[in-house]
Write a structure and sequence with these properties.
The structure is a single chain. Helices cover about 0% and strands about 40% of the residues. A hairpin with a 6-residue loop joins strand 5 and strand 6. It has about 170 residues and is mainly beta. The strands form four sheets. A five-stranded antiparallel beta sheet has the order 7-8-9-10-11, with no helix packed on it. A four-stranded mixed beta sheet has the order 12-13-14-15, with no helix packed on it. A three-stranded antiparallel beta sheet has the order 1-2-3, with no helix packed on it.
Length: about 170
């Protein structure tokens, strides 16, 4: 049934919509808060829209089979938490990314941690492949001293940041 109301309603405190069961399904308060006692279900391609300019949109596309959270406004999409972490997981609980509060960021491949930020840099498990324009590569010995440098000229410096020969070993004074 459709109920059309025109005019002003005064003395409004709240309204409940009964789903013909034993309880109220939807409640609208005088503060314009809407409370649902069950799930909110939208059909495919229907969008939950937030903001005056439709800035935030959440929907599922039946055509592509993909689900979307879109910020189409001028600001940033921010995921925040005062908890211990933010997890990106598959529905079976397999980790893809873990963002620990005031701690590491961990990235996974097939639920195996491959990259972790630390307070002193980053740890990579497995091989590193670099392509493009590498100006130099420094390898730290974890004692805050540069242990090895490989330049784009394919010169290797051990204890030397600017190797003068193909292999330049600096005497540890």
């Amino acid at each position: 049934a459709t109920l059309a109301i025109q005019g002003t309603v005064s003395g409004f405190t709240s309204a409940g919509i009964d789903d013909n069961a034993t309880s109220v399904a939807i409640t609208i308060s005088s503060d314009e808060d809407v409370t649902f006692t069950e799930d909110i279900k939208l059909a495919d391609n229907k969008i939950a829209i937030f903001g005056a300019g439709s800035d935030l949109q959440i929907f599922h596309s039946a055509t592509s089979g993909n689900s979307f959270i879109k910020d189409v406004g001028t600001g940033a999409l921010i995921l925040g938490s005062d908890g211990t972490k933010i997890l990106l997981q598959k529905t079976d609980g397999e980790n893809m990314g873990v963002f620990n509060t005031d701690g590491s960021v961990d990235l996974y491949h097939n639920n195996a941690k491959k990259f972790e930020t630390t307070s002193t840099g980053a740890t990579v498990t497995g091989n590193i492949t670099a392509t493009g324009n590498l100006t130099s590569l420094g390898i730290d010995d974890n004692a805050n001293a540069l242990a090895m440098t490989i330049t784009t000229e394919e010169k290797i410096g051990i204890g030397e940041t600017t190797p003068l020969a193909n292999l330049h070993v600096k005497n540890a004074d």
